Task: structure prediction
Amino acid sequence: MPFNSSSNWQHDRPGTSLTIFFVVWKLLLLLIACTSPYPGYDTSTTLLTQSGAQRPDSEHVTDIISRLLANKLTRWDAIYFANISHRGAIFEQEWAFGWGYAKIVGILSRMLFAAHAGLVETAVAGVLVSNFAHLLSVLVLYQTTKLIGPKPSSHETQSVAFVSASLHIISPAGLFLSAPNAESSFSFLNFVGFHLYASSLQAHQDHRLGRRDVLIIVSGLALGLATTFRSNGLLSGLLFGFDIVKSIFMVGEEVQSKTILSRLRRITILVISGVLMAVGSAFPQYLAYREYCVDGRPEHQASWCTHRVPSIYAWVQSHYWNVGLFRYWTLSNAPLFVLATPMLLILTASALSFLPLSEQPSSGINRTKISPVNESRARGWLSPVGVDVARRLAVPQILLALLALTTYHVQIVTRISSGYPLWYWWLASKIVARDSIKLAGCEVRARVIVLWMVMYACLQAGLFAAFLPPA
Result:
């Protein structure tokens, strides 16, 4: 059992064990999806899959399976992603969907199916990308968790790593991590960026400054790529912002020129990494601006072209999906806030549990002192470098919860939270230690949260395949 810390699953070939658990879970969700009523209340997917209906080989087994996958998994945002991947973004609102994911899926579909790549084949390519990226993100999360433990080979560290990765498999994002959606690919790139960032802090502790600088830059590149899949990836840039501010303050405290130069070098590297992240977000916006505001006729210029910040993404989200501060706070949306509440509480509680942690000198950053008892209880299985990483990841995660509550369509928090590792670590450490959890002032057993995750993902799989909310 993956969540039994006394089992041998996490010690005997953990990669194989996680892969088996991953496949079993995916098959379970697919089975639920296949038994869900078809076509559901919205028939958009049937229009998409009719594109290949006249081909003479449409009754081959592989074509039947492809059509089944497309019919059951191409729902909600996946319809947009399949169309954009197949023929590029044509309509203004299509620029709200991850440019990077659509490009990858489009390239893969043409590689696999060549001239026969219709919408069904493109959707299937999206399913392959999403599932492969989800599996890779599971394995990366396992390795990152081991990296931030005090002893990677210790029983506790391996147990927390294995349970964390298992929790990512059964994420309440559910079928969104299997369908042609950007969530699983975003999780993979975000986790890779965090892994590289944690490795850079470890290199700093080991006084391997050249390796540290390279890892920081590559981390910025990975996180920048992640923002081309989901815009909330920009929150990860707070990692670099935090370090830049700290380093600037420390420069003023130094008196030795050699140390000052070292600090300035670090600030320069961090700025480069931050710029790489910003480019990942700005590049698709630039492409849209050039298409709608520069190359087009002036009389047909889009209204957002004259905005102070001419962002097609911000315009589309506001104009077409009514995204904005407190716009979602209506009585009719109250059930969606109820559905999102467990995930909002988990994100907030896990982030707040790490924020009070004091830092150690390992990362070269001044730290606030707290009592040894609270320090030990808060840090638990984390190494000093792990404490540094946890503190930095807590801020983007709590901001994500705040934005979901006040600005986003709140129900999406159950799926976009899948790309943030901190709450997996928090819950996994509680499961391994057999500790209870306090949510909204109530004591809750950690395994109750796991049960909620499983139930939510399974119910969501049936609803998703029937084109029913929450989405």
User: Anything to note?
Assistant: The longest helix spans residues 257-294. Residues 358-378 have pLDDT under 50 and may be disordered.
